[in-house]
Amino acid sequence: MHETSRLLEAAVVLSQRLHSAGVPHAFYGSVLNAVLSNAPQADEIYCIVEGGGTHPFKRVRQACAGSSDLTTTPSPWSNRLHATYHGRIPPIEIEILPAGEEGPRHLNGSTVALMAGVPFLTISEFLRAKLKAWALRRLDHDAQDIIYALTRYWDRVDINRIPEQDMRELVARYPAAQSSWKELRRKYSSHSRS
Q1: How far apart are the two ends of the chain, measured CA to CA in Å?
Q2: Total-model pTM
Q3: Cβ neighbour number for residue 1 with a 10 Å cutoff
């Protein structure tokens, strides 16, 4: 677990470098729920980056080149890149994920929202990405992140962005998500009738 404020500090520094280099990006992970709930601790932060004409990892490495606060470390055996913020001890590591592979393919005003001065995935895109992760790994902390966001913000979710089969499986395993999922479906079914 990390202090949420430290994760946000690292995200701001990385975001400034990426923004200056014209690289579309958004953060996600349990840090989003921590920001929404004012929780002092969070256990994960990721940065989704669009590639454009170049691989997203190359764009991040170029944006961070020459920074005294940020370094990048590739993990060729797992095809991942980590950006490490050295402004604090211990350093904060942010995993870089390619857009489309994780999260939406395009990061723009419909998929990204500014919170606490940092671009995050919208609630709908956060749920979609977390649901995809949960469907692959079946980790309880992914399910808990989904349940937290869904139960508190279901009325801000675009149901068209949620993979229904995966959500039905999650609801079957975690009854705590059932009433919010039902409300969301009811909201959209009433919209389709009007």
Answers
A1: 46
A2: 0.92
A3: 11
